[in-house]
Amino acid sequence: MKAKIDKLEEPVENIVNEILNLIGTKARAKASFDKENDAVLVDIDAPEETGLLIGRKGENLNSLQTVLGMINQQKTGEWRRIVVNVGDWREKQEDYLKNLALQVAERAKETKEDQPLYNLTPSQRRIIHLELSKDEEIETESFGEGEERYLVVRLKKTS
Asked: Would you state the pLDDT for residue 159?
């Protein structure tokens, strides 16, 4: 099984490092395979360029992730989920979103009013949905389309 994993990791790692060289950074990437999520994880070590690679609200990081997935599919002929991280940004972002979810749920319980959350990416909405799915008093629902999509946190309706 290890040979198959290496086969998935190596091309992605090479592509990322080539992109990092082309944009003129000193950053280096290391890829590993996450069996549980069936994804190639790319961890970029960029002590001097962390902010540049992450970008505003993770936009650069997400764009790099998208481009990597497309290049990898072109080169290997198969689609593979790729998750790119710089300086533990994704973990910090997930912790922040989970705390936000709990605060908003508490506000919904206190005020008994719907609590909308705007300007979230699909993956951010997913983290909040999953975190609040554990709360038996709260439900979440997404509304809108595209850039206008938002999340509502509210008390579950009782019949």
From this structure: 56
